[in-house]
Amino acid sequence: MAQMWITMGPQHPMTHGLWTLRVKVDGETVIDTEAELGYIHRGVEKICEARDFTQVTPYCDRLCYVSAMTWSNSYIYAAEDLLEADVPERAEYIRLISAELQRLASHLMWLGAFGPDIGNLTLMTWCMRDREMFLDLLQELGGSRMHYNYPRIGGVKRDIPVGFADRMIAKVKLFEKRIEEYEMMLDESTIWLVRLQGVGYCNAEEMVEAGVSGPNVRAAGVNYDVRWAHPYSVYDEVDWEPAVEKPTSVKGADCYDRYRVRIEEMRQSCRMVLDAIEKIPGGKNTNYASGDEMIYTKAPTRAPEGATGFSNYECTRGASQFYIEGGGEGRGKKPYRLSIRSPMFITIPFVAKTMIGYKVADIPAIMGSFDPCIGETDR
Amino acid sequence: MAITLEQNAIAVTECADAINDKFSGTGISADIVQHSNAKKYSFVRVVSPPQHWQALAKWLKFDLGVNYCSMITGTHYPEGPDERGWGLAYHLLRQPISNQIPDTNTVYVAEKMVGSQIPVEFEVLINLPNNDTPSVPTVQHVWVGADWNEKETWDLVGIQFEGHENMFRVLNPLDSPDGFHPLQKQHKIRYHDYNEMYDDAQGFVRKPADEGRVK
């Protein structure tokens, strides 16, 4: 057969964003691929060098538009390392709850976008319906549906509102039942199984070598998770266990395993927030004023030259990391250098190479199963 | 469930001692540093001269089991001393991840992990002399994950990775001029150190005159 290069993207339903996948095909079979990124590179790292530490948070929200809360939390932990801030325990609990609610919303967005790729349009509407519940909860905290600017260096912007706990418990318990509905719909759907099982194999060591992290690696059978390996927040005090799959082949995890691990992760997030809201110090129906010592500790605003801060954070798509060097403009008021490690930036070139050997029609299934997000990839 | 501070301390000490034993007298040194955020766990900070970096990387990967290159940060210090005009920080992780037999999985219980199973974080710092052509040996062939990280560092900061195959721009436009690396410090993002949005939010101050200034 004649071989040729096909360009998929930058506008293509498979991309889930804005990037180009160049595919070399021999008939229907993929024989080579190249990923081309950078379409929405905004230079966040450079912009942050001219902002002080508080002003950086909203930029980090905008790194990933479906998972804003985890990204700003990730930055906050690096800034706290740099500025040596203490965080009250109640604030850590609130951060855990907000991050896990965001994880639920983000995984629902992923599932909702992945369904139409596979040919299941119903899924889109169902996921959007359920995601709305969690966006409403996050809106109660941050005041916005998408970019919350909620965590602060040394705590959180404001306390959970009165009645938030009851609303959250009701919604999360409802959602736990909805997860079963999703499973009933998907795990017995022929089209879902035919298109996901046996497609897009990659094994654990290969993925770690290439820098892939998070749920994609847990799908391959090891329960490694930053939340217990490099603990932050209060994950050691709440009741949960990392989601992990049993891959069915020596070739590792397929697209179906990656779908299963995210469903399980949503279940664990539900379990975590239900437990955390009961254990929260200070009571779940108390509302402390903004700036109260229960939710906020004043942190230094300047970092000396030579000081560094680093955070390793389990974002919804893998490990997001921030590295900050202090001693920038304004006698250390601004970072000298802020570097962002995006999990998808490393994953996308790897996924492009795993497609080799599969059919062109498998590309949306393989790409979608890794949950790409281009906002964080291009930064 | 989480790794305790005791487990972390044991693993970090073992790794730092192993590096100091192996590379004594080469200029490579390892310290234990404690984070001051979150759970305040420690990590290993290694300082290495650029010429020994490949040897160190191979040893870390194949003997110490550091299997994950997560992040490479390049920094430009135009006003630094002669021996430090550019800095590189590599963030590496040791993760207990291995291939699985079909239909089985590995479920670690954090508190029961011992020895080389315990995840450890490494930070390798490399200083490069203050000149216009910073370069460091590549570790692309040691960790596949370093490949795109190095591409990004060259693209944004302009540090050359000697021996890196297939280098191209990944974030900047492909037709960017040669030698344009936006994270170098001579590129300013504030127009004449003046920014309407932040320095004059109310619009009261007259804008500074532009004569004699290069845009």
Secondary structure elements and their pairing?
The complex is a heterodimer of chains A (379) and B (215).
Chain A: E1 3-8, E2 20-26, E3 29-36, H1 44-48, H2 53-61, H3 68-83, H4 89-118, H5 121-142, E4 151-152, E5 155-156, H6 164-186, H7 190-196, H8 204-210, H9 215-218, H10 226-229, H11 255-279, E6 308-315, E7 318-325, H12 329-332, E8 337-341, H13 343-354, H14 363-369, H15 374-378
Antiparallel strand pairs in A: 1-2, 2-3, 4-5, 6-7, 7-8
Helix pairs in contact in A: 2-3, 3-4, 4-5, 4-11, 4-14, 5-6, 6-11
Chain B: H1 5-22, E1 29-34, E2 42-47, H2 53-62, E3 68-76, E4 86-94, E5 120-128, E6 135-137, H3 146-157, E7 160-162, H4 196-199
Parallel strand pairs in B: 2-5, 6-7
Antiparallel strand pairs in B: 1-2, 3-4, 4-5
Describe this structure in words.
The complex is a heterodimer of chains A (379) and B (215). Chain A is of the alpha+beta class and 379 residues long. Chain A has 15 helices and 8 strands. Chain A has helices at residues 44-48, 53-61, 68-83, 89-118, 121-142, 164-186, 190-196, 204-210, 215-218, 226-229, 255-279, 329-332, 343-354, 363-369, 374-378, and strands at residues 3-8, 20-26, 29-36, 151-152, 155-156, 308-315, 318-325, 337-341. A 3-stranded antiparallel β-sheet of chain A has the order 1-2-3. In chain A, strands 6-7-8 form a 3-stranded antiparallel β-sheet. In chain A, helix 4 (89-118) packs antiparallel against helix 14 (363-369) and helix 6 (164-186) runs antiparallel to helix 11 (255-279). The longest helix of chain A has 30 residues, at 89-118. The mean pLDDT of chain B is 86. Chain B has a single domain, classed as NADH:ubiquinone oxidoreductase Nqo5 subunit (Beta Polymerase, domain 2), CATH 3.30.460.80. The longest helix of chain B is centred in the N-terminal third of the chain and has 18 residues, at 5-22. In chain B, strands 1-2-5-4-3 form a 5-stranded mixed β-sheet. Chain B is α/β, with parallel strands linked by helices and 215 residues long. Chains A and B meet through helix 1, helix 3, helix 8, helix 10 and strand 6 of A and strand 3, strand 4 and helix 3 of B.
